[in-house]
Amino acid sequence: MPKTPVPPETEEFLQGPNIAVIATLRPDGRPHTVPTWYEWADGRILVNMDRTRRRLEHLRNDARVAFTVMAPDDWYSHVSFLGDVVEIREDPDLADIDRLSLRYRGEPYHNRGRESMTALIEPASWSGWGRFAER
Amino acid sequence: MPKTPVPPETEEFLQGPNIAVIATLRPDGRPHTVPTWYEWADGRILVNMDRTRRRLEHLRNDARVAFTVMAPDDWYSHVSFLGDVVEIREDPDLADIDRLSLRYRGEPYHNRGRESMTALIEPASWSGWGRFAER
Lengths: 135, 135
Known about the structure:
alpha+beta, globular, 7-stranded antiparallel sheet, homodimer, 7 strands, Pnp Oxidase, Chain A
C-alpha cells in the first residue's frame, strides 16, 4: 500500500459525505467493524462516537485502525487506509458531531444530551480502487 | 452483541446485493478493510477474491474477521458480524464469482482468467442499526 498523502483528486473526494466503515481491535485482537460518519481534517480522519460505545474502549486499548471510504453513488470506487488513533478528546459543546451531522444530514445532531467523544486518526498508508486506483 | 442467527427480516435483507466491507487481520495483528461482494449462503457469508489478494494470506493466517453489510439506499441501516472463516476453496469454473457478478452487475464476471478463490465465513454474533436494530 502506498504511503500517505493521497493524490489531490483523492483528497478532494475524501472531503465529501461519503460512506465509511471503521475497523477497531477488541481486547482479544479480533477485528470489529461499523459504519461511521467521518470528516477529512487536513490529512487526518475525524470520527465521533457516544462515550458509551465499546469501540471507544477498543481505541484506547489499541490505537490501530483500518478505515474504508466509498463513493455513495459507486461503492466500487473506494479508498482504504491503515492508521492509528493519535488523539481522543471530549466534544463537550457537540461542535464536532454537529459539523458531521450538518455535512451528512443538513442539520445539527438531534440528541443534545450526547456524551460526545472525538477521535483523530493519522493514516499511514492507503489503497484505492475504481476512480481512486493508485496510478 | 446477540448471537446468530439473525431475525428473519434481517436475513431477507442480507440476501440482497448490498454494500459490504470485510475486515481481516494482517500478520502483525493490524486490521485491514476492503469493500467486497458477498452472498448470504444459508447463514454463512460467501466472499470471493483473486488468488493474488493479500487478504487471502490474512485469512489463512488468522480466520477471525469482521463483516459489515449496509443497505445501498440507506447505509445508516446496517448489520455487522463477528465471525471466522471456516472454509477456503478454489473456484475453478468461476461459478461463485459468476453468481456474485450476476447478482451485483447482472452479467458473468468479466475476467475469465481469474484465479478465483472462495472463502466461507461463519458469523458468531451480530449487531444491527436503523431498520435492522436489535429489538
